[in-house]
Amino acid sequence: MNNNSFNLAYRDRGTWLDRASGATKLLAFIFLSGISMIVLDTRFLIFLVILSLIVLKISRVKFSEVSFLIKLVVFFMIINLLMIYVLAPGYGAQLYHSKDIIFGSGPYALTKQELLYLVNISLEYFVAVPLALIFLLTTNPSEFASGLNRIGISYKISYAVSLALRYIPDVTKEYQQISLSQQARGNEISKKAGFFKRLRGAAAILVPLLLSSIDRIESVSQAMELRRFGAKKKRSWYFAEQLKAVDWLVLFIVLLIMFGGVILLVVNGGRFWNPFIH
């Protein structure tokens, strides 16, 4: 398989992100994604988007590796934005206590306030997705599990998370193999086919993919049970490492960003930055 094809697999790319602890990257992802959902200040969100994209560039993750996932996220983001506008076209005006119509009339008139709110929602996606990709593609599952266990999480939960991360690339590879098998049987689900035909083809892939995943889960659970996994309260880790200087630096920067977000909450008098106040 081409290395540039879609594959959410960990690979050491030789950057400082690969040397950082998995627990550190998880905390950074949770804290930065969380603060972006709390502080809906467009200026702050743009800063976080730029920061996320810069770090994604540093990680050396190629777009071809994640293009399918990004397109999928953008697709659902557009659906989400449309549903927000259809179900609550006046929500932006309520939030910002003003109403400046750009075009249209009636309840579905597009206002500057609604547009700003939708832009903020979009920016949240562009903050979280690069951070999630960085975490998934630069984190060794075994090292991540040991890091979680070190910060107090049960080793059973840590190992379960490790297994989930470890099998993501296996599932994507199997999806591609089943897809090629379906196409060999005459089911055209490539870009040449229409959207709905590709959608039906994808549905046909999910059934064998689900069955094979269940079979894999059963095999792994039996193997773990035979090795008496969980019989003891503690366990050792092959990839156990202490937090390094890069980890403390990342956590310090994340805390600074969160502190800046809290300051904006105070300055703005709430979650939203209101540029429409005259």
TrEMBL record:
The keyword DNA damage does not apply. It holds the Pfam family CbiQ. The chain crosses the membrane at residues 26-56, 68-88, 115-137, 245-267. InterPro entries: ABC/ECF_trnsptr_transmembrane. Keywords: Membrane, Transmembrane, Transmembrane helix. One of its GO terms (cellular component) is plasma membrane. It is a multi-pass membrane protein. It is found in: Membrane. This is Energy-coupling factor transporter transmembrane protein EcfT.
